[in-house]
Structures are given as C-alpha cells and as structure tokens.
Amino acid sequence: MIEQYPVLGGAESFFFKGNEIGILISHGFVGTPQSVSYLGEYLASKGFTVYGVRLKGHGTHYEDMERCSYQDWIKSIEDGFQFLQQHCSDIFVIGQSMGGTLTLNLAQKYKNIKGIMLINAAINSIPPMEMYKNKETPRYVHEGEPDIKAKNVHEITYSKAPVRSMHQLFALMDVTRDRLSSVACPVLAFRSEEDHVVPPENTNYILSAIQSEIKEVLPLYNSYHVASMDNDKEMIAEQCSLFINKLVSNVFKTI
User: Fold this and answer.
1) If you ran DSSP here, which 8-state letter would residue 104 be given?
2) Residue 227 binned pLDDT confidence (cut-offs 50, 70, 90)
3) What is the pTM of this model?
C-alpha cells in the first residue's frame, strides 16, 4: 500500500543510535510514534539503541489508513525489527494497544527476541468498537479525545477512524490470539486499571495464554489507555529499562 498523503509534523518515526541492545517501539491504532516518544527518549538516554516505528497508514491521513490491511501493519513492525537487527545484537520490543498486539505477533514468529513489554495490549475486546464489527457503514467514525487522564496532553491522532480499519484490527487480534501459545520470551505487561478503550481483562488473558516462564504484570492506577503519555509514563519508562537490564545481565536466572 502506497500512502497518498505526507507524514504529519511530529508523527515521524524516530531512531536513536546507542549500544548493541536495540529496542523497537510500536504505537497503537490511529496513533503515531509521538505517543511513545517520551518512552523512546528515556530509553535512549540510558544508552540503548531505540527505533520508534510508524505503522503504515498512520500519521498521514485516515484515507491512507483505510487502504491498509493488518498485514501492512505486521510488515511495518517486521521491517522495524529487521532494521534494528542491522545495528544491534539483542532486541527487545515494546508495544502499546494495537502495538502490543503486533508485538505479540512478532514474538511468536521471531524467537530471537529477548523480551517484550506490553502497554494495554488489545487481544480480545475493544468495547467502543464492538458495534462496528459486522457493519460497513458509517464509513468513518468520529474519534473522541484520546483516553488520557493527565491534563493538557496532546496526542497526534486522526479525527476519524475508518470502519474498515477497525475490521482489520479485529482480524489482527483474532490471528494473534490463535498464536499466543507460541509466545515464550520474557514479558512485562502494564495494565491500566481504568481503561476506557481496552479493558484490563485483555492483559489478563494474554498472560494466561502465553508460554513465557518470565511474565510480570504492573498495574497502573493513575493512567487511562494511552499510558505512555499519561501520569505513569515515568514509571513505565523506568520499569522497561530495569526489565531489559535484568534480562541482559541474567538477573532473572539467579532469582
């Protein structure tokens, strides 16, 4: 799929060259790398090599998004993973919302991923979208304000979401859910206890279905869905860094 519109200012992918440990970060549905930029900048400040991927059809215009399939989004994150492999020996992946779904899909395919971190990943239910599951109309649905508890936070996102794209998101969730038993790498999952988009039960389901020996969950009590931009963003960034460093230094194996 070739995008017809230019990338919006601030919505571009980002890359910070650091050490041999690479961290791939994926934003969510209708979002952009801007939503995970704080996380990326924090991890880069710790010396890691960080790539925030822009998923195809995102950060341009919702008409571009409408032309995308979920396979386009899978290819976007796979391209990002392969790009990091050119720079790094060990790779970790972080995904928020649909980015978490894509991260799980990537982890079941590439067994050399050292660990993944999920932020309110979607796998089996998105109540605000359920009513559009079997509908073709309306063509577009108005997007309300991003689900962020913190005040005065601006997320670059679309004003409308194509119903066709929602269908693609549900299809992605379906194929990924069927593959969860193939995920065996270490997992750290962040779960907002009050999430108006993806209920916390999604995270519980993921943790019960994967085969990972190392799996941790950290509840977020002061953030809504877009937690990487919310009140707990500092804690999320710090815990991701700690999780990665523990795996790299094999601390988990000595506990």
Assistant:
1) H
2) very high
3) 0.96
